[in-house]
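Problem 12. The chain below contains 505 residues. Write out its predicted structure in token notation.
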Amino acid sequence: MEFSWFWLTTIAFFLAIPLLHRLRSVNNKKKKLPPSPKGLPILGHLHMLGKNPHQDLYTIAKEHGPIVFMRFGWVPHIVVSSNKSAELFLKTHDLVFASRPPHQAAEIMSWGQKNLSFGKYGPYWRSMRKLCTLELLSTLKINSFQPMRKEELGLFVESLKLSCRGKAAVDLSAKISSLTAEMSCRMVFGKKYEDKDMGGRGFKSVIEEGMKLAALPNLGDYFPFLGIFDLQGFKSKMKKIAKAYDDFFEKVIDEHVNGAAEAADRADGKARDIVDTLMSIMQSGDAEFQFDRGHVKAIMLDMLAASMDTAASTVEWILALLIKNPKVMKKVQEELEQVVGLERMVEESDLDQLKYLDMVVKETFRLHPVAPLLIPHYSTEDCTVNGYHIPKESRVIVNTHAIGRDPNVWARPNEFFPERFVGSEIDLRGQHFELLPFGSGRRGCPGMQLGLIQVRLIVSQLVHCFDWKLPEGMLPEELDMTEEFSLVVSRANPLIAIPTFRLRD
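Solution.
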């Protein structure tokens, strides 16, 4: 009898959910929602998303406008596709949309959404951001890792010089990925780790798989009651990735705890890594919230994912665009010759003088933002934006891919033309909504300064030290630029090129 009552209650519950959802939809329709394409029963607009959702949503915005209402499953989404509408959500009404929605991948793989990227807005999150900004991503902390960046780049250039001798083609995607991973490991953990150190699954591949799982359309997010069934098999994969993260990070923390005395009294002058700093904060009890190992691991994952994947993908896109546009490549090299000369490598102190390189970086972010949909925002209350009713608990997607290609803002929007920024005040630090690679407002990326240093330094070194030619007689215009969607959008195919060393030995 108890068993029968259980199933009757369960069936009644599942039947009631669509009815409640329908009643809520009818109530919303009484208010002026943003324009919306025609959807399907139950699925809503999920069927309109393909392999590259940012491109699909851009196409939809062209027809329906810069603020569009869509329903993915039972969950309302607001898609924002212009600079003016982005400013309304990220500045004018920033507080209402500063939180993050429930997210199964982040819940499983980020220790209950304890990380900065997916954490829900509130006192805990504000304290976490303050800690990261002041202790982990301050200018002083970033500068302390300058000798490490120089050392790793020197090793990187030497490895490429070996390829020059045999005129061998190089997988630049793999090389750049390894470089940013090694830089990130030394910054976060204090030393490099090999693939075997993360359960033999591959250090970089585990991080990348986690990023992809966090970006895939998950029925558990769009139909919450289906989450327990794991119909797509995502949940089991997330749990395996979470265990790999947890086992590895526990090992790293234990190593730091066991070597705490040595770390506290370094005689070699090396900067304290980020785990050292986090463990010091945890043990001191000075944090404004109860700070435990779960928080340490969540921040470690944030730091790793942000500094590895985003930097690598950005550098890759910049190099691909420069190789595809030889005249622009030549102008970057001429600027480097003027500022640096051909007798030495680029130093970080040179970067502020490389104005044309900055334009190239901006133009790349405009055409290929590495996080084209940012991370969804979440409305914590009903709100009216530009005359439209935005229901509570809506997910807000800011499509920076669409904003960067808006013909109302950018002349010849599909053309790679860095000179468009000559005399322009548009910056990429979140104050100008025409260009938002790092987001804006309360949820703007706190690691922006570190990311820009890494990207500009690696790109300038690659372009200054080497000339690049495509293999097998491929013409620049034939270079494939297909995207592969994830939280960080990378090239679908690796970037292969032949280097020639150009500095005077």
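Discussion. The domain at 48-501 is CATH 1.10.630.10 (Cytochrome p450). Students who got a different answer should revisit the alignment rule from Section 12.3.
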